[in-house]
């Protein structure tokens, strides 16, 4: 709600609160119009055009045995207590947070690799960068040559 300049903010707040209370009461009264359907203890009427209307009517008038509290089975063994569930959930949340922190500090190498590589290159001093580039080129060529030679060899039969 926006307060108009020069207006009494308390009066405007009271008017806004009164409107909100009126809206809640109106919604409540609309809900009360259907209250008898929501609290009815009897089932709704059966649709006579339903193919199972006769069977549903017959079953709805039957009484079935109701279990007693003595017949409720005991708590099964091996069920965690609420405290153990809370501990497990807390640990899962902490592991998720740890993973998110790890991912923030270790960027994925499969996306935006050029930007990451540029950032890392700028961290290398200029003299060392030239030495690394020369060594890297020679090593890369040797590695590529070895791969080409191995690719030309026939694979042994298994």
Description of the molecule:
It contains six helices and no strands. With 158 residues, the protein is mainly alpha-helical. The longest helix is centred in the last third of the chain and has 27 residues, at 126-152.
Summarize the structure.
This protein is an all-alpha fold. It is built from 6 helices and no strands.
Rg from Cα:
37 Å
Helix content: 55-70%
Number of strands: 0
- Sheet of most strands: none
Number of helices: 6
**Uncertain parts:** none
Q: What is the H-and-E element order?
A: HHHHHH
Distance between the termini: 78 Å
Mean pLDDT: 79
Question: What share of the residues does DSSP label as strand, in percent?
Answer: under 5%
Shape: extended
Which class of secondary structure composition applies to the elements?
Answer: mainly alpha
Topology:
Layout: H1 9-32, H2 35-38, H3 53-60, H4 82-105, H5 113-123, H6 126-152
